[in-house]
Design goal:
1% strand, globular, 77% helix, 24 helices, two-stranded antiparallel sheet, 2 strands, single chain, 576 residues, mainly alpha
């Protein structure tokens, strides 16, 4: 095999190696343009460069394009009947999927991850040495991408297949392959836990910890660095949390102690390497004490739900007063308290964590912290989905709200096609809720429908967008008739979006009417909440003013342009 299991060529190499790889690619581009027979060399050079770039956090996005180009070149030569191009294509697609997942582009990562698995299956059938280990790595990667996009059952099948392959590859005499088996078992346990199958998760996690212990006790050089120690500590931490969630706190203590011991060993070997483990511990609401023990971040023996509720109320009040950064700080503190409470079990604690994460995503978005907002929103949606069966009446409306927010968070980062799925999910959930309780949820259905129209438009699905937006306007009109003051801002947004949709499908004669209605209603708005995307509304009105002017609607264009300028002046300033 040209590359080791899961190992990127040049990983950890410095800028000199990357610069040399870039020069090699440039030279081979020129050579391949003159002589197509050299394209396989260029494909390999791109694979090496893409793998190096993937190791640099500042160049992750660039690595995706380079690995994609390598895959395209390999794809053109993979049908020549030899193993080399097929292996190169499998490696390139696998690493492209890893890179896409690393930057959160999970929906896009699924396709190359699936392709990589299919390719490695073919390579295994050819009897290429080392291919089964690579197939196992590709299966785990595909499982992770599937799980992160809500396809937990399919993810579980892929990771279970990887575990069986890893198990068959362990050498009983030398112990070779134990670390890889332990890693796969850990992934399996974590995925089972995410699906709420905590007893099965615990079995897999205990098996993983036992395998890591065997690997460390073998004395045959299998613990060559801090990487395996960190993996072992992470899986022991997952086992401890799972036991805590099952109410088996006494059984969890030895695992927490093991995490502390492994952390101390990592610190002694390479102090900087402990940062990842500390981030993981803190992310789940735990802390490392002065004596190195791992403890819940909140006070022991107290019910944190009251404090979590207080911090949520305080954070939302800060956001309402125009101080979203301070709001995010309060909600981050609430999330840190909620994590260990949720891990300890109890539907109320899970709901508290999900609600806190949703609110945190909103506050971060209002503060302009877009990437962090996406992280919180995504976690809130996954948490609601995993526990929906346990408390459907409580979590279904929260999931609907969180999915709608996730769509918006993806869209502002330019991931428009990814944003359609959660936006569609939100509308479907709100439609169910509004059917049983229209007074409580019709307004949310109208808002979510309006947002779905935007997501569809940004994905170039214009006819669908127009139909959804027309439905949103009908809902907003009905709500506005019942309670004008409460629903005027929603109707303004829906009308301006309807005008944009009509313009997009070239129904130009119909654009002026909803635009004029939106402008008239806009004058009645006094205050503007930070959750309103004022900049986007102002931009929409400015574009509509230009469009109407070009279509000969001079008076409507002037009124719309003035409204856009007035909206910009009235918009809340950041941090105020």
């Amino acid at each position: 095999m040209p590359y080791g299991d899961g190992e990127a060529p040049g990983t950890g190499a410095g800028p000199d190696a990357t610069g040399e790889a870039e020069r090699t690619v440039a030279a081979l581009r020129e050579a391949a343009s003159a002589d197509p027979a050299r394209r396989p060399e260029l494909a390999h050079a791109l694979l090496v460069l893409g793998s190096l770039l993937a190791g640099d956090p500042d160049r992750h996005e660039e690595s995706i394009g380079v690995l994609g180009e390598s895959a395209r070149l390999y794809r053109g030569t993979a049908g020549d009947g030899t193993d080399g191009p097929l292996v190169g294509l499998a490696v390139a697609t696998h690493r492209q999927a890893l890179a896409l997942g690393l930057v959160g582009r999970r929906e896009e990562a699924r396709a190359p991850a699936r392709e990589a698995v299919g390719l490695w299956h073919r390579i295994v059938e050819r009897g290429v040495e080392g291919a089964r280990a690579e197939l196992a790595a590709a299966l785990v990667n595909l499982g992770n991408q599937l799980a992160e996009t809500g396809r937990h059952h399919e993810a579980l099948d892929r990771i279970t297949e990887a575990v069986e392959i890893r198990r068959s590859l362990v050498d009983p005499a030398s112990g070779a392959g134990r670390r890889e088996l332990a890693s796969a078992l850990g992934d399996l346990g974590i995925k089972l836990g995410e699906m709420g199958r905590r007893t099965e998760a615990l079995d897999a996690l205990r098996a993983a910890v036992g395998t890591y212990r065997e690997s460390g006790a073998s004395g045959r050089g299998t613990r060559t660095g801090t990487g395996e120690l960190a993996e072992h500590a992470s899986v022991s931490f997952a086992a401890a949390r799972t036991l805590t969630g099952l109410g088996r706190t006494e059984e969890a203590r030895p695992y927490f102690a093991e995490v502390a011991g492994l952390r101390a060993e990592i610190t002694a070997r390479e102090p900087r390497a402990v940062a990842f483990l500390d981030h993981l511990i803190a992310g789940h609401g735990y802390r490392v004490t002065r004596d190195g023990a791992v403890r819940p971040a909140g006070a022991e023996g107290t019910d944190p739900l009251d404090e979590i509720d207080r911090l949520n109320a305080h954070g939302l009040a800060l956001a309402d007063s125009g101080r979203p950064d301070l709001a995010a700080d309060a909600l981050t503190e609430a999330a840190a308290l909620a994590r260990p409470a949720a891990a300890a079990g109890g539907t109320a604690s899970v709901v508290a964590l999900a609600r806190t994460l949703h609110n945190l995503g909103l506050a971060r978005a209002w503060a302009g912290r877009r990437a962090e907002a996406l992280e919180a929103a995504d976690e809130a949606v996954h948490l609601c989905r995993r526990h929906l069966f346990a408390a459907p009446d409580t979590l279904r409306p929260l999931l609907a709200e969180a999915a709608d927010s996730l769509g918006s968070r993806l869209a502002v980062l330019g991931r428009h096609r990814d944003a359609v799925a959660p936006a569609t999910e939100a509308v479907a959930l709100y439609r169910q809720l509004a059917h049983t309780d229209p007074e409580a949820y019709e307004g949310e259905l109208a808002r979510a429908s309006n947002n779905l129209g935007i997501r569809l438009t940004d994905s170039d699905r214009h006819e669908e967008a127009l139909a959804v937006t027309e439905q949103a306007v009908d809902l907003h009109r009905r709500l506005h008739r019942r309670a004008p003051e409460a629903h005027v801002d929603g109707l303004v947004h829906a009308l301006s979006n309807l005008a944009l949709r009509l313009a997009r499908v070239e129904r130009s004669d119909e654009v002026a009417r909803p635009t004029a209605e939106a402008v008239r209603l806009l004058r009645s708005l006094d205050g503007i909440h930070p959750s309103n995307d004022v900049a986007a509304l102002a931009e929409s009105l400015a574009w509509l003013a230009w469009y109407l002017r070009k279509r000969g609607h001079g008076e409507a264009a002037r009124d719309t342009g003035r409204a856009a300028e007035d909206l910009r002046r009235r918009a809340p300033k950041p941090g105020r």
